[in-house]
Design brief:
InterPro entries: Plant_def-hormone_signal, Polyketide_cyclase/dehydratase, START-like_dom_sf. The protein is of the alpha+beta class and 234 residues long. 31% of the residues lie in helices and 30% in strands. The relative contact order is 0.16.
Length: 234
């Protein structure tokens, strides 16, 4: 009878479903379209969130961003940034506002309010959700990013979504690659530090044992109760 190895169970937070319904249920007008994309990342949520929440540094993982400068604010809610887009895309700049940044629930909302590009009335919502996996040293993170945008002039809803999905999908895959490498590096570094600390602790224990055992008698030359055959003063 063949043995089927049990699969590792993934456990999502009980509030994940409610959060998705709250933040990713799209309200579209007749001239708008939108979609939701999901990326599962093999890295702990705090690490992934630390990269995403940096409104002033989207180029840390967004491949099509050449540079970014804050026009107002300090990176908190209400801040406005000017993003320079890499060549090759039908855009040059994008002016974006941070509408929501919730460090407790891990929610980020951004609106495009200007710039030289084709995405009119673009609004995005990104949420992070922790996934626990049995036998793993750290949990996984599920990133959900949804958006609403006006249909591009001269294009269909399908073409508009295809264009936006391509950009977001590339960004999410880039985020996954970067944070997974960071998680692996930090874990290996931690393992090395723990191994080093364990060695030092073991050495200290051995030294204490030797010091306790070596009790030399001036008359017999015994060490730890063992006669070493030396008579002092002979």
């Amino acid at each position: 009878m063949p043995y089927n190895r049990p699969s590792k169970e993934l456990q999502r937070h009980p509030k994940t479903g409610a959060m998705k319904n709250q933040y990713h249920t799209l309200q579209l007008s007749s001239n708008q379209c939108g979609s939701s994309l999901v990326q599962t990342i093999d890295a702990p949520l705090p690490l992934v969130w630390s990269i995403i929440r940096r409104f002033d540094n989207p180029q840390a993982y967004k491949l099509f961003v050449k540079s970014c400068k804050l026009r107002s604010g300090n990176g908190g809610i209400g801040s406005v940034r000017e993003v320079m887009v890499v060549s090759g895309l039908p855009a040059a700049t994008s002016t974006e506002r941070l509408d929501k940044l919730d460090d407790e629930c891990h929610v980020m909302m951004i609106s495009i309010i200007g710039g030289d590009h084709r995405l009119v009335n673009y609004r995005s919502t990104t949420t992070l959700h922790e996934i626990s996996e049995e036998g793993k040293n750290w949990g996984k993170t599920e990133v959900v990013e949804s958006y609403v945008v006006d249909v591009l002039a001269g294009s269909s809803k399908e073409d508009t979504c295809c264009f936006a999905n391509m950009i977001i999908g590339c960004n999410l895959r880039s985020l996954a690659r970067i944070t997974e490498k960071m998680a692996k590096f930090h874990f290996e570094k931690l393992q090395t530090e723990l191994a080093t600390q364990t060695i030092f602790i073991c050495l200290e224990i051995v030294e204490d044992i030797i010091e306790a055992q070596i009790q030399t008698s001036p008359e017999t030359g015994s060490i730890g109760g063992w006669d070493v055959g030396v008579e002092w003063g002979a």
